[in-house]
Amino acid sequence: MALFAKPDIVADATAASGTLVLRSAQPLGDYPVTVMHSVRDWAARDPGHPMVAERDGTAAGAGWRTVSYGEAVRAADGIGEALLGLGLGPDRPLMILSGNGVDHLLLTLGAMMAGIPVAPGSVAYSLQSRDHQRIRDVRELITPGAVYAGDAGSFGPALDALASMPELAPLPVIVSRGDRPGALRAAGLAATVPGPAVRDAFTALTGDRVAKILFTSGSTGSPKGVLNTHRMLAANQQMIRQAWPFLERERPVIVDWLPWSHTFGGNHNVNMMLTSGGTLHVDGGRPAPGLFGESLANLAEVRPTIYFNVPAGYAQLVPALEGDPAFAERFFSRLRLLFNAAAALPPALRDRLSTLAARYAPGRAVPVTASWGATETAPAVTSAHFDFTDARCIGVPLPGAEVKLVPVTGGAYEIRVKGPNVTPGYFARPDLTAAAFDEEGFYRSGDAVAPASPDHNAGLIFRGRTAEDFKLATGTFVRVGAARAALLSAVPLLSDAVIAGEDRDFVTALAWLNPAEAGSAPRPAGEALIAGDELRALITEALRRHNEAVGSAGQIRRLVLMARPASLDDGEITDKGYVNQRKVLARRARLVELLYTDPAPPGVIVA
């Protein structure tokens, strides 16, 4: 059986408006009522197969705590029974503060088996926030029946913040480690003897029931609670499996850090493992200063069959693979594909990945592929399940998804979606729900794309967020997503960048160094800029070559390297690494003014 299915796209055009509707000619196949039904099926067929594993402690050389499918279902049934006994139900969700982990997954399975929605929040809003206002807002909005935090000590201030809301009823607390007066133990819930309550609740599950409430990352606006139904999650996995038929015969193994509070990690990746009977190794590392070494250690020990990441992760992984042939050989030894999502992969970085794959997996294709989706689409809508050369390609519509392309400024199209994987709306916000859908019921994504070929089988090219694009004072239209990806490709020393220039005469950028590429470059504290002579010379030359190869809308005339990282608490970045262009420009307006000051001040790199 082939790795990928052959794309076969049908297009319907509306001549008057220029709108296109794309869909797969392959109908969507049957799928279970819920992903939980797949979990039970795997537990019955092969109860001893490992489902999830995480490091058993933080000491060097720590082993793995592993839970099998059979063990997971037994624990989930007990947890479901216990949560129902606490009064949780369809209208009283389980709020989760903790990051990825075995107990987090078991509690999620237990709640979903019992028809209780789960509402996982970004762990940073509990551990890094100064005022914990985000989690207070979530509690007030969804009125949860209980809250889970892995460690009573580190999450103590967040739990205290939730407890200090006297207008709301006391909130039961569940922990895995540490002491907190009155807190329940996750292990104790898992040991509960299942009874008729959880069995009846599972039997009553339908596709329309809410499985999760996911809060959007706020990349272009305020976070809101997206309703994820069981149908959305189960249908989306069937859509993916029809594009990736190898999942029917191969039980995948992944090492993954992507947060379960977001749809990429929590829906796309976790549900793929559960639906396909795979094994998920929880990666406690991430592409952040001082943490990526743990990811490298995990990948050196556990050989993945599929690898998922975002561009910021690949920007640190590629130099590590290039610098360590033994690590690269092990990493690629049974890898089937490399997958990127959340933002466009810089072309040069994709080329380096492809070169590594060809070197360390000779005679065996290991494609670098991509997809597109949103929290509101559970998440996958398109998939690049074919060979492509343009790194911005996001693929073709998956079976079951209708994609409407509506013309917008600059020769691109806004991508809109209809299908069984699309949300019914936002929690307790009918106003947001009404605004999110057009008159034909298509979800308005706000993302811009363009067809790669007239027959549409070569996929769609991602053109960025329509809300981020702008015009220069000259009237030149700037596609921010394309300009950013091209800059990062031309200057590998950069980990990320924000493009400036709205109503100005030329384009500039605020950027951060890539620690995996920049070596020992000095990093001042605070707002100070990084501007060493050697670094300045390297970036100046890279910008010169870049500007010679692109049009005026993509030329970066000036650039500053920022020492202060993007702030999650201030909404500048999400915990999966997506930078909020508008927020950074607003909060760092002083630096933007420096970019347009004449003569250029010290610290501003001029191409």
Radius of gyration: 24 Å
The main sheet orders its strands as 1-2-19-20-21-22-18-17-16-15-14
Measured as a percent range, the helix fraction is 25-40%
Please state the structural category: alpha/beta
Strand content: 15-25%
User: What's the CATH H-level homologous superfamily of the largest domain?
Assistant: ANL, N-terminal domain
- CATH topology assignment of the largest domain: Rossmann fold
Envelope shape: globular
Summarize the biggest pleated sheet: 11 strands, mixed
- Provide the CATH architecture of the largest domain: 3-Layer(aba) Sandwich
Regions with little confidence, pLDDT below 50 for 5+ residues: none
Termini gap? 51 Å
Could you tell me the mean pLDDT? 92
The counted number of beta strands is 28
Query: CATH class of the largest domain, please?
Result: Alpha Beta
Number of helices: 20
Number of domains: 3
Outline the structure in words.
With 607 residues, this protein is an alpha/beta fold. It has 3 domains: 1-33 and 229-248 and 304-467, Rossmann fold (3-Layer(aba) Sandwich), CATH 3.40.50; 66-205, Rossmann fold (3-Layer(aba) Sandwich); 470-606, GMP Synthetase, Chain A, domain 3, CATH 3.30.300.30. 33% of the residues lie in helices and 23% in strands. It is built from 20 helices and 28 strands. Strands 1-2-19-20-21-22-18-17-16-15-14 form an 11-stranded mixed β-sheet. A 5-stranded parallel β-sheet has the order 6-5-7-8-9. Strand 23 and strand 24 (477-478) form a beta hairpin. The longest helix has 17 residues, at 69-85.
